[in-house]
Amino acid sequence: MKRSMRRSLAVWTLACVAALCAGMGLVPPVRAQSAVPGVPLERRVKAAFLYKFLGYTDFPASAFADAAAPLTIGVIGADDLAVELARVVAGRTVNNRPVEVRALREADAGARVHLLFVGGFDQQRVARIVRQASGAMLIVTECESGLQFGSVINFRIVDERVRFDVSLDAAERNGIKLSSRLLTVANRVQKGAQ
Amino acid sequence: MVVRDGGTVRGKLILMAVSTTFVALLAASLAMLLFDLRAFQRYWTDDLMTQADIMARVTAPALTFNDEETARQNLAVLRVRPQILAAAIYTSDGARFATYAATPNQSIPARPAPSGYRIEGGEVAVFRNIVENGEMVGTVYLRSRYGLVDRLLSYGAILGAVMLGALVIAGLVASRLQAAITRPLAAVTNVARQVMQRRDFTLRVPGNDSGEIGVLVAAFNDMLAEIGRRSHALQEANATLEHEMQVRERAEEALRLADRRKDEFLATLAHELRNPLAPIRTGLDILRLRSGDAQATQRATDIMERQLRQMVRLVDDLLDVSRINTGKFTIKSGRVELKAVVNDALEVVRPYIELHGHELVIDLPDRPVFLNGDATRLAQILSNLLNNAAKYTNRGGRVGLRATVDDRTLMLVVSDTGIGIAPDMLDTVFEMFVQVDSTLERSNAGLGVGLSLARKLVELHGGSIEAHSAGLGHGSQFVVRLPIVVDPELPAKPTPASFISAETYRILLADDNVDFVNSIGALLTAMGHSVVITHNGADALAAAKRFCPDYAFLDIGLPQMSGYDLARGIRDLSCCTMTVMVAVTGWGQEKDRQLAFEAGFDHHMVKPVRFEQIEEILGNRSIIKKLRT
Lengths: 194, 629
Fold this sequence. Notes:
Mean pLDDT of chain A: 79
CATH topology of the largest domain in chain B: Beta-Lactamase
Oligomer: heterodimer
Low-confidence stretches of chain A: 1-7, 13-35
Number of strands of chain A: 10
CATH topology of chain A: Rossmann fold
Distance between the termini of chain B: 105 Å
Structural class of chain B: alpha/beta
Largest sheet of chain A: 8 strands, mixed
Strand content of chain B: 15-25%
CATH class of the largest domain in chain B: Alpha Beta
CATH architecture of the largest domain in chain B: 2-Layer Sandwich
Low-confidence stretches of chain B: 438-445, 489-501
Strand order of the largest sheet of chain A: 3-4-2-5-6-7-8-10
Number of helices of chain B: 16
Mean pLDDT of chain B: 83
CATH architecture of chain A: 3-Layer(aba) Sandwich
Number of domains of chain B: 3
Radius of gyration of chain B: 67 Å
Number of domains of chain A: 1
Structural class of chain A: alpha/beta
Number of strands of chain B: 17
Largest interface: A-B, 20 and 18 residues
Number of helices of chain A: 6
Helix content of chain A: 25-40%
Strand content of chain A: 15-25%
């Protein structure tokens, strides 16, 4: 019941946002100046968010080969977003590490990346991919009940805005730490048995 | 001590302390105020910056993830800081992202300004960039009340209160401490004022402080002592000068008086000397014109003799006065019988008294009274007094002489019924050159010598003299007291001077004044004496050798041989040891007298010689004989 209501809401939101963007020409505040006209606003916002998540996340030292090793973002099931994200991170660093974006296939779910975005709203598929993922990585999903599948951050659309829920348990499980400042802007923070 | 106004040292000291404190406090307060305001401003802006930084840090995720609601909530935290009036978050594009206002109607800039702070009016505004992961994601704006004026006022009020309190305390402390300086100063001032008012230099400033004040007090006291000493010395000198001035004035007055008396004396002297000359000249004229008329001749001779006697007497008195004044007056000492003295005196003055038509009353004791002294001088005393009495009594008066013996004192009273003496003149009549009344007619005037001489002579005989008078016009009395000799050994038979012995003597006269010696010789011959007259020393000596005279009247100024040598020569003659030798000389000084006696003379006569004197000497023959044996 609740799930379906959220889903319909998200669709409505997306539609509204798209209409808004198309109608009024307003750009959302996230790196809008260099937006690619072909990519929808929602995807661009999420791409920007993904990049920004890195700044609020502590990875264990074992996650890197060396001090100059790049932070790797793997994107599954959202190629347009991967393109947009690659454009966002180009020339940027996080904690003095360069950021690279890899568009992955579902079969590559076990690849060693620091942030894995699993796009798509097919819950079973997402759950399957999340389960395959292992190691110190930040898993971000965008489907309904993403956190329940083991995702750390799950995008939501609230009041026509892109928001996200956070699962501290999942983060702990994956061996990463999320900044408390990130939690202040999270839509919901899940902790303990829920 | 009493402090009357602000001009006192006390007031100045307190004012000094208070003003010094005030200046120091003011400087310190201003410095503190400036420092505090600067620190306050820095603190305030720093605080606001920090606030902005915190807000930037806190709102960075909300801005990053485009969460306006969270950003508003973050800003709403500022409500705990009421001084913050407004706040805002801008996106990196400059769009307002979230705002906060403590009260409604707060203006919030539409666009952000560069990072920094600015102070406008009573408010301070801060812009801070929000940097996240090395990227500027937006701007924070905070605006706050700026409490500088409030701070200034409250701080100033505190400083003012502190300063006021400090000044009061400084004033109190100074008013206590200044006493150490002002008390001695006030004491000095007080004493100085008293000294000026009371002229009392014995005042001293009490206290023994040390340091400059002590030195001042000690110096002031020393100065007072010195002034006191000098003032005292000055007063003493003034007193001495005043005394000397008085003495000098008195001496001057006495000198003036003496000078005046001397002038009067000289005038009188000239008159007195001149007076007898007119009758003498008249007598001479009579003698020349009527030499044949024996009666007229006799009268002229009597007048001339009297006048001459008066004149000689006057000169004698003057000589005696001169001797007395020069201290060369001596009296011979010998036993003298009162009656002889009285006779001698009467011999002299009787003609004068009779001339004035006075009645002479004499009252002497019956038994003989002996005095120790100079017969001639004692007679002179009496004659002077009697003469005086006759002179100052109007014609036809009465002149009395009374002698009484009281134990060992002979009292002689010479009284008259004359003009008398004023009471205030009783003491001064005996002084030299003093006359009872200088306005008296010249005929009555005298030299003022007689009484003075009488007193001197009385005193030389150990007696006293005093004058009495019942006043002017009531006559006067002169009382002479003389000690008497009560020794019973006395000649059995007194020889009155008036008695002229019938015995005749051999008499040698030696004088180069032929007229004088011949006239005397003629007189003596007429009296029955054998007389040899010589005119020089050699003849006289030769005559003495032959003649063996009983008496030899020798002139001292003889030609060829001086009287003294002649006397020694005669005295050496065997026949002349008993000869009574009389020196006749023009020199009456005491030393001449002395020389005469040393040369062997028995008497000394000063020219001009009256015949009575020769008769007197001849009459004393018996006494001399007795003394010589």
